[in-house]
What does this fold into?
Amino acid sequence: MVFEERVINDVRFRRVCRSVDVSERRGHRIDISLHQDVALFRVNGVIKAVSNVCPHKHEPVLCNGVVADGTVQCPLHGWTYNLTSGQPLVGSAGLKTYRVFEEAGHVWLEVEADDAPPWASW
Ligand code: FES
It folds into this structure.
């Protein structure tokens, strides 16, 4: 599969989905690589991107969390995170956040530098 990517201010972005795929009420998972599993959310119309992996038990479940008032609550044990900052409201560790933007009906997500596939160094 060929991905469309752009570099803006030295940050690599990948077009990952359509804007309509991300709603206000539920997360949308973007599994970029083994190292970058992201959940997209929409808060008051604005796209937010955080790690999909809950730091409590390292489970990739936050895309299925309960969304309310700019937060997501993990469906497993209730740790809760601010979707803008990634900071925990309930729990003892925060989420990594990613740069993300919309353009012409598509969502562009920051791709981490270590996104090289495991076989790339062979
Ligand atoms: S795995 Fe998310 S709160 Fe336990």
